[in-house]
């Protein structure tokens, strides 16, 4: 009998890795609370039509990647129903907003979620068929200010704060506007016209997208198609005056908060519900697929799903990718640490400490040198920041030739003969 394993594209999360997952989620909850967001938990499966109408039937998600099945009727009086594991959560949150009449409060609804999503795509680094997302939505009636460009800037500023508090270094923000639904329709028509004479020279996926969803062509990472894509019309050329002013106000608010960004005219995002502001945070440590999170405004989604007018903006971040980024940063930081911190226990031992450091450096080790004027506690604190291990050099160690070495990672402290020190530190 063959051994059972996790299904391809899924995996088990085990200690101690789950500690990092809990840290990320706890930090997100803490930051969201400061911005007065409340948690929402929607079902992990929904009526298939929710995603067909909300995300768009021609998107890759709906056309190729959803896990869908027919829920058979259990009685003659019942009808069978097509159900789908949620491939994203914005449509489900807006469905809940409509179903529970949250708009009747007259207030903005600021909702966050943490949970699994499901897409049947090719598994690769940081991308799984069951993946975890942290996301949030700000939605409400126009009278509550839901259309304001200030909402867009506030959400983006909150994300910059979250990434900083998670300790993610070197993130980059790319931002753009896809304009109103009318702007977007004009732009899609222009893209189709521009793609018609060149699409046959593009990869198979982009040939299909050129017909079904031209905006997705702009997202393509296919190296052979980049020259063609760079020559396509830019969305900024199709924005009306109102959309242009809206985007200017978003950028002005980000400038006021000193949130750095780059306007990327190719950032249009392929889901049908996006309007006006779209954005993406990226990180170089993730390779070609470098997106940490993305989001944007979806002013017409509620109406598409049969609800009242309720402009909104939201985002989703892949928790798997956050974990990979933090793990990569930790590995880089560990690699940058010195092999040893030599700590003389008294100013009279400074010269001997320098002599020892010279010996170790001569053997190819990276060594930091303390000072005999430091208190022992300070030597340990500095050593922990700068090196993997600390070597204590006191009168006893000098006379006996047995040096005290502590490994900061394990907490183990041992006596090592000076003649064996170099090999032990390796």
| Basic shape | elongated
Distance from first to last alpha carbon? 45 Å
Give the averaged pLDDT, no decimals.
Answer: 89
Largest sheet, strands/sense/barrel:
8 strands, mixed
**Helix residue percentage:** 25-40%
Low-confidence runs of at least 5 consecutive residues: none
**Count of distinct strands:** 16
Strand content: 15-25%
Which fold name fills CATH's third level, the topology of the largest domain? Answer: BirA Bifunctional Protein, domain 2
Q: Tally the helices: what do you get?
A: 16
* CATH level-four homologous superfamily name of the largest domain: Bira Bifunctional Protein, Domain 2
Q: How many structural domains can be distinguished in the coordinates?
A: 2
Strand order of the largest sheet: 1-5-6-11-10-9-7-8
Classify the secondary structure makeup into a structural class.
Answer: alpha+beta
What's the architecture of the largest domain, going by CATH? 2-Layer Sandwich
CATH class of the largest domain: Alpha Beta
CA-based gyration radius: 28 Å
Give a written overview of the molecule.
With 426 residues, this protein is α+β, with helices and mostly antiparallel strands. It has 16 helices and 16 strands. It has helices at residues 17-34, 48-56, 60-65, 90-99, 149-166, 181-195, 204-212, 215-218, 226-230, 241-256, 301-304, 319-336, 350-362, 376-386, 395-400, 421-425, and strands at 38-39, 45-47, 68-71, 81-85, 109-118, 130-139, 172-177, 262-263, 275-282, 291-297, 312-318, 338-344, 367-369, 387-393, 402-407, 413-417. The strands form 3 sheets. Strands 1-5-6-11-10-9-7-8 form an 8-stranded mixed β-sheet, with helices on both faces. Strand 9 (275-282) and strand 10 (291-297) form a beta hairpin. Helix 1 runs antiparallel to helix 5 and helix 5 runs parallel beside helix 10. The longest helix has 18 residues, at 17-34. The radius of gyration is 28 Å and the shape is elongated. The model has no long low-confidence stretch (mean pLDDT 89).
